Amino acid sequence: MSDSTLEIEPAAAATLLGDRVELTRRFTQNLATHGEELGLIGPLELPRLWTRHVLNSALVAPLLRPGLVGDVGSGAGLPGLVLAIARPDVQFVLIEPMERRVAWLNDQVSDLELDNVTVLRERAEDVKLANRLDQVTARAVSAFRKLLPLTAPLLRDGGELVLMKGAGAQAEIEAAQKEMRKYKVSDARVQVLGEGLTEDVTRVILGTVRA
Ligand SMILES: C[S@@+](CC[C@H](N)C(=O)[O-])C[C@H]1O[C@@H](n2cnc3c(N)ncnc32)[C@H](O)[C@@H]1O
């Protein structure tokens, strides 16, 4: 049935991922095979798994700098595992409280032989990483206003938020002015990634934490 068939790999995958595309194919296939039974992706996601989930995450890779990046609420590994595949020069900490999801993430780290990933079974507000990270990513965790207390305290002075968002990203920034002052986030702005490359563009809210 067409509505439960894995999307054919778009040409943009090889363009975006270069020599990491083979490993990304393996992760995508693992997610297609086990994601629904493990409650990681919904039943309607297979026909758009590459475009909406994997490539959408991979578009963020060029924004990362060598250093320590935390992904808050990694779930199925989006964007954390895709970014760890795409950027072997960056160290990642995946922060995810749910046991079953943590087991999946650890299984994937082993299966894909990723040596740049640590998985922590924690809520972001409890994790012992205050002021330690260079950048923080998150996707589909909560509104920017509510995400700030979970992410900004983990960043060192000068560290950067890289938060994946939908079409309402600019409005989310406007609704978070009070929290931005409280968590010392300056220069919050929306960047659109993937225009002309994939059907689903990715929007990120970027912002810098100043002590
Ligand atoms: C809707 S899922 C999104 C998962 C993944 N980022 C994605 O885009 O597919 C939200 C994830 O955030 C996690 N989460 C919720 N509250 C959290 C918190 N306080 N700290 C860290 N992770 C949290 C949930 O367990 C869940 O895996």
TrEMBL record:
Q: Please name the CDD domains in this protein's record.
A: AdoMet_MTases
Q: Name one GO cellular component term.
A: cytosol
Positions annotated to bind S-adenosyl-L-methionine = G73, L78, A124, E125, R139
Q: What is its EC number?
A: 2.1.1.-
Q: Which UniProt keywords are given for this protein, alphabetically ordered?
A: Cytoplasm, Methyltransferase, rRNA processing, S-adenosyl-L-methionine, Transferase
TM region(s), chain numbering:
none
Coiled-coil intervals, chain numbering: none
**Record bears the keyword Membrane:** no
Q: What does this protein do?
A: Specifically methylates the N7 position of a guanine in 16S rRNA.
Q: Which HAMAP family match?
A: 16SrRNA_methyltr_G
What protein family is recorded?
Belongs to the methyltransferase superfamily. RNA methyltransferase RsmG family.
- What is the protein's given name? Ribosomal RNA small subunit methyltransferase G
